[in-house]
Automatic annotation (TrEMBL), chains A, B:
UniProt xrefs under InterPro entries: FmdA_AmdA
EC number per UniProt: 3.5.1.4
Native species: Siminovitchia thermophila
UniProt name for this protein: Amidase
Keyword Hydrolase: yes
Keywords in alphabetical order: Hydrolase
Domain of life: Bacteria
Amino acid sequence: MRFISKNRTITHFSANMEPITDVRLQETITVETHDCYGGQIDSETVLRPDINLETMNQATGPIYVNGVEKGDVLQIDIEEIELDPRGIMVTSKGLGVLGDHIEEPTTKILPVKEGRICFKEDFIFPVRPMIGVIGVAPASGSVHCASPGDHGGNLDTKDITIGSKLYFPVFQDGALFALGDLHASMGDGELDGTGVEIGGRTTLTVRAVKGGTLEAPVVETADSFMFLASAKTLDEAIRKGSKHVVGHLQQELSLEFQEAYRLLSMLCDVRISQIVNPLVTVRIVVPKELLPRLFKK
Amino acid sequence: MRFISKNRTITHFSANMEPITDVRLQETITVETHDCYGGQIDSETVLRPDINLETMNQATGPIYVNGVEKGDVLQIDIEEIELDPRGIMVTSKGLGVLGDHIEEPTTKILPVKEGRICFKEDFIFPVRPMIGVIGVAPASGSVHCASPGDHGGNLDTKDITIGSKLYFPVFQDGALFALGDLHASMGDGELDGTGVEIGGRTTLTVRAVKGGTLEAPVVETADSFMFLASAKTLDEAIRKGSKHVVGHLQQELSLEFQEAYRLLSMLCDVRISQIVNPLVTVRIVVPKELLPRLFKK
């Protein structure tokens, strides 16, 4: 199995970025990634205000997928996530929903071993590995890896984890995907501004869905399709995601708008992925039985 | 077991409201409730603009709990929810997150039978019963039953269901609780502005926690304590709930602010209950093992 090292990364997802390598459809690869600070925080004496934020959330790639064209849907199956032996959680003035309560920044290094995070003595928690940044080349321009969007990017969605399938709209031939910013654990919202930030290796398989239509990334779990939507405010993101879901329900089930809207309200959950990035991200969780033919065109 | 009929209801939770009856601690009672429209919508020809909104979300009660005093915590264990044989879903211009797409209001009556909701032919879904409105007398003034707050009220939280335990701050002697507005099903967010609105009978047991401190309602499920927070915007509600949770984590685990803030971000989820009432409601979901002594004073 091919191994893509973390020595070539991007700081932006750009429409015209150059691939570092290519893969074929159905190929399984392992991609090594930095923690979101790019290794700059190597002890508890290095604080967030000390580091260069321009390279934050750098992603390994981009990787060109042979056989995927603009207008297709790129499918990425997450097979495995192996974590480095230590994670990082910083606090800093203004960071997260209660950041105004913080005066002095702090850095905490958390040992991660045998599937467990040592927060402190008697505070040991199981890892819940996830990928913070994953995306494809956008339709135009350039988006910093710290921000999410319709191309993916810093989605910080905890369901982007082992066993999930991800679907991205393909805006450029070859899709040009990249990933980074693993977390050993993070709650919905990422409320203090960080997860347990960590480097590692993700094993994934790439596939293509031809003839699909997708506005923004979707995560498939055992039970659900989760439609991700990123926007400036939670209200905007919820509205955007709701529109996408109602559109898919109407199309797939041949329903009028108001009937699809009722199903949305009765059976679908809006969940918050993160509220601490330049755009916030929500997901609308749709039970799979409502969309049995999605991505099976 | 005592049965409290739906013939005496309130439209407001008020500090000085008069009880319709009283119960003793540990008593189990069944409370009958109207659907949120108070039975005004009895066919698909009755539309939302036709009805009187002043009595919307009326709640059966208030019920005085003997032995509960101001400053205690009222515990309500939800044992059973029996639903009437039909639910209602309306749409109307401006209602819900995509209400601007609606011109003509519609009403849909949904048969509910043997634990299933018939949405239409080939669209049959299991019921997920929940209580929309449940609360106690507020500290002062009067709050319409259509609005949520620290006293409870229109919380529209789907985890307020069979098997859950609810905890309310007690602002007045006897707590004076009331409930109504059942839903046969509703997704997080209540995105079109309604669940499957329905009447029914809730069986519950009342208890008291002495010496507890609580700012706003908490729902206990099998795995979690969910701290509810209602406010004008999602951002405010999330901030308010986060403060409550960090305070409880600090107190119970003897942690400094920044350590409790990290646990919040690493292990707790923010979830949206509803975004369609006069105040929105979120819940911060805390794994039970983080607060093993909560309500066990």
